[in-house]
Fold:
Amino acid sequence: MATISVLILSACFLTIYASFFDIQYPNVYITAEKGGNLTIQAGPQQGNIFMKPNGNGTVYIGHTDMLKLFEIVNSLPPTWKVNSAHGSLGVFAGGQSVNLLLEAIDPEGGKMRFEKVSGAFPPGVHLDKTTGRLSGNAPDVDATYEFGIRVTDAHGKYADQIFSIDTR
Structure:
């Protein structure tokens, strides 16, 4: 008898509120009228509300992918691995080959991009923006070249470091 009562009440509820609660398998739509609100509130004991999409699913509010937003907010910027005390990458004689790897770590293990944001490389030395490798031949001039490199992760978070190369 109780089961029949629940079914009758459910049918009445769905009949009255059918435009707000719609099941179109495999989707369930809950909507509010224009200007209305949809409120999901935990009980009086301050419980939690969970939205758990499976696989590649996500949670959207408007056109914003909330899971992607949380991923960006919670991500950490890359960090530079090892460099010498003042960022000096070494002394190179004129014509000597320069082959240096600027190393950074992305805590999430994503791809990173390297770019020069200040200063100048020695003429003939170039930066590979995907690997962080500086390569080329040192010019035959007595000079110190100081430059800033920014490493940026997939979420747009970055770390800057100043490096220098001395040529003789």
